[in-house]
Amino acid sequence: MAANLEDVPSVDLMTELLRRMKCSSKPDKRLILIGPPGSGKGTQSPIIKDEYCLCHLATGDMLRSAVAAKTSLGVKAKEAMDKGELVSDDLVVGIIDEAMKKPSCQKGFILDGFPRTVVQAQKLDEMLEKQGAKVDKVLNFAIDDAILEERITGRWIHPSSGRTYHTKFAPPKSPGIDDFTGEPLIQRKDDTAAVLKSRLEAFHKQTEPVIDYYSKKGLVANLHAEKPPKEVTTEVQKVLSS
């Protein structure tokens, strides 16, 4: 149930109203972001979301919130998870279908982390077709595995503050030590070369056929994801304004 509007501060109401007015002239966009871990999708998606007034659909988060809200699809998803099974493609597509009906998704969406397989891509297309919609663009964050390895395995974190460092791009003043507290830095379990290698292998095996699937439809835009974030943002804007 939405909050009573009388209780919402005027500034928030006006800000939202202005945002919606600005959004009303924007073209609808339904976008899919594809890229390996560390390719910069997480940096670009909030920028695209704000620029085009889209909703960001991260399937992992959506599944968790559907389970927490005990929606009929969420209950089914929880049953599968409790048994240690994967949530079926139809269920995930159903949850995306539900999410798309929200007012925040009126102008379209950014899908991140789905589809991971060609079957999922086909099911997504079928669901959109029923709504008279389609995917407009697939942004492929193309980047060399070696560059990713350097990006990710160089990341170090100060656990209590969340401050991040990078051995090459943003090193701490003293190796392995937080600049402010002098406490030791740690590396995330996922940020080691061995874990990255297996994640990349899985990504290439599963997801490259998805890129081929959308390429045949002429929807894929290949971005130079190894460039600095600002340059990638400029590339994205060019692709989406054409």
Automatic annotation (TrEMBL):
Q: Which reaction does it catalyse?
A: AMP + ATP = 2 ADP
Q: Which PROSITE patterns match?
A: ADENYLATE_KINASE
Q: Which Gene3D superfamilies match?
A: P-loop containing nucleotide triphosphate hydrolases (3.40.50.300)
The answer to whether keyword Transferase applies is: yes
What residues does the Adenylate kinase active site lid domain cover?
A: 155-190
The EC category is: transferase
A molecular function (GO) term: AMP kinase activity
Q: Per the database entry, which stretches of residues form a coiled coil?
A: none
| EC number(s) on file | 2.7.4.3
Asked if the record carries the keyword Electron transport, the reply is no
For this UniProt record, give its keywords in alphabetical order, as a comma-separated list: Kinase, Nucleotide-binding, Transferase
Its biological purpose is as follows: Catalyzes the reversible transfer of the terminal phosphate group between ATP and AMP. Plays an important role in cellular energy homeostasis and in adenine nucleotide metabolism.
**Which family is this protein grouped under?**
Belongs to the adenylate kinase family.
Q: Whom does it interact with, and what assembly results?
A: Monomer.
| Name used for this protein in its record | adenylate kinase
List the source organism: Parasponia andersonii (Sponia andersonii)
